[in-house]
Amino acid sequence: MMSGEEESDMMMCCASCGIGQVDDIKLKKCTACYLVRYCSVKCQKEHRPKHKRACKKRAAELRDEILFKQPESTNLGDCPICFLPVSIDTKKSSMGERCSDEKDYKSAVEYWTKAAELGDAGAHYNLSISYRDGLGVERDEKKKVYHSEQAAIGGDPFARSRLGCEEWSNGRTDRAVKHWIIAAKLQDEMAVSALQDAYREGCVRKEDFASALRGHQAAVDSTKSPQRDEAEAFMIHHKLRGLGG
């Protein structure tokens, strides 16, 4: 195993030809794994067969570091009119409802693609469904997974919970549990139910399950306020009056 100093020296030399970085030679890192540097595209191509396995392994590790990072919050604040929390539930997305007709799928995909490029988590999730079901686009498993993961990274709890279900179905229980713990701490009820089932089957440690439940309750409590309670009671009252109650 190389020491930190040896790794540092290796990073300052071309991984293929061994030339060091000098004023007229600038080494560029491998953009997938950041483990090695190259002095030219030619050297990178020549070294690729030797580096491919380590590169893919490290790239996957870097991706998981991003994927399984707990988002701080999904709370987008309160509606300035009714004081209720602004929801990011993609099932209630106004764009999703407006573009849900079959004839509008292609237009919806165009809008979602633009929104996804701006970092909108809900748009990424909608695109994942489009690529999964072939709605407005050709079915594409890689793009489906990519947009599902981007939605989860962006803080969409429903996308996160669905990723957990997919991992569970594929037998990757450890990854499924990680997704559900994150989703539970983002107030996702489906993730809490999934964790309860996984805990009964012995797939979740007691301390992790307890931490997820505490995080879920803390997230729920953080969206409570007297104004919200009054607004919700007001809306329920008027709905009942409308029903003749």
From TrEMBL:
<dbReference type="GO" id="GO:0008270">
    <property type="term" value="F:zinc ion binding"/>
</dbReference>
<keyword id="KW-0479">Metal-binding</keyword>
<dbReference type="InterPro" id="IPR006597">
    <property type="entry name" value="Sel1-like"/>
</dbReference>
<dbReference type="InterPro" id="IPR052748">
    <property type="entry name" value="ISR_Activator"/>
</dbReference>
<keyword id="KW-0862">Zinc</keyword>
<dbReference type="InterPro" id="IPR002893">
    <property type="entry name" value="Znf_MYND"/>
</dbReference>
<dbReference type="Pfam" id="PF08238">
    <property type="entry name" value="Sel1"/>
</dbReference>
<keyword id="KW-0863">Zinc-finger</keyword>
<dbReference type="InterPro" id="IPR011990">
    <property type="entry name" value="TPR-like_helical_dom_sf"/>
</dbReference>
<protein>
    <recommendedName>
        <fullName>MYND-type domain-containing protein</fullName>
    </recommendedName>
</protein>
<dbReference type="Pfam" id="PF01753">
    <property type="entry name" value="zf-MYND"/>
</dbReference>
<feature type="domain" description="MYND-type">
    <location>
        <begin position="14"/>
        <end position="55"/>
    </location>
</feature>
